[in-house]
Design brief:
Elements: H1 3-10, E1 19-23, H2 28-35, H3 44-58, E2 64-67, H4 73-78, E3 87-91, E4 93-96, E5 105-108, H5 114-119, E6 124-131, H6 137-154, E7 157-164, H7 175-186, E8 193-196, H8 206-219, E9 224-226, H9 236-245, E10 250-253, H10 255-258, H11 267-289
């Protein structure tokens, strides 16, 4: 990692040196969350409105925030919805649905222009990578390498997010083991920051989670943080603490912060009373441990 990348990466951290980053880049998965709470269709405007409300309420407490192009980026920049001092990360992935998954595959989103990201005040870009045991490692590696080069050429921090997913050929599999396998494959490709699923998805007790977190620290060349998908919001702070005790540098999470307010009658009040305290608790955890 070059000196410029180190400096830019530091701008995504809290004064403690920990990452306490918010994600609002969920797309069709967020639509599905709203659909569980209402009978009428979930509109694009509804998603955009929620994302902007979450940005206004939560970014004063986050060290950085991850925003998607489809529903939020342009509006967030235009309306100055991100609090000063909160670093901005662009989601540079395009999700492709399959018959049974909202995110069946991922490609680099060519409509996310790194130069425009930087012009708009962005510091970093993020790429999600679906890791499956029956799919081509060479294809994944090539995409990650191209993404990292794309970020470097624009002077942006590169963040990769490999996630363990079921094989398509029906073979038996272990999702938890896939978290480690993905890190072995992609954790030394040169990304500035690695975003990992919580080891063992937070299950099995402290010893199991910490042992696997320590293994991730050994495998990944550079700093890494955890995401919250797959872990109940109330369980996430403990999982973050265990991971950070073994080398994780914080979190980049959305669902654990705002998932419980989806469907609230007064969204602004729910964000204030529920989501802000959740984010503050997570910040306290990483400040104390990291």
């Amino acid at each position: 990692m070059g000196a410029a990348s180190v400096t830019k990466l530091s701008s995504l951290k809290r004064p403690s040196g920990a990452f306490a980053m918010l994600a609002v880049d969920q797309r069709e998965s967020m639509r599905a969350m709203f659909a569980e709470k209402q009978s009428h269709p979930v509109t694009d405007e509804q998603l955009s409105d929620f994302k902007i409300a979450a940005l206004r309420a939560l970014t004063p407490y986050a060290s950085a925030v991850l925003i998607d192009r489809q529903f939020a980026w342009s509006r967030a920049i235009r309306e100055n919805a991100v609090a000063p001092g909160c670093g901005i990360i662009a989601a540079a992935d395009r999700f492709i649905a399959s018959a049974d998954e909202l995110v069946g595959d991922v490609v680099i989103d060519g409509e996310v222009d790194p130069e425009i990201v930087r012009r708009d005040g962005g510091i970093a870009m993020k790429l999600l990578v679906t890791w499956r045991p029956d799919e081509s490692a060479e294809k994944r590696i090539a995409m990650v390498d191209a993404f990292i080069a794309r970020c470097r050429s624009a002077g942006l921090v590169s963040i990769i997010e490999p996630v363990s997913r079921k094989p398509r050929d029906g073979r038996s599999w272990n999702a938890e083991a896939g978290i480690l396998a993905a890190a072995r494959e992609l954790g030394a490709r040169g990304a500035d920051l690695y975003k990992a699923e919580v080891p063992n998805y937070g299950k099995g007790g402290e010893a199991v989670v910490r042992q696997q977190a320590a293994e991730l620290t050994r495998i990944i060349e550079g700093p890494w943080v955890v995401l919250s998908s797959g872990v109940a919001p109330d369980d996430f702070p403990q999982a973050v603490e265990w991971a950070c005790k073994e080398g994780a540098m914080g979190f980049l999470a959305g669902r654990a912060v705002w998932r419980t307010v989806i469907g609230a009658d007064d969204m602004d009040l729910a964000l204030e009373k529920d989501s802000i305290p959740r984010l503050q608790r997570l910040c306290d955890v990483v400040d104390r441990i990291v």
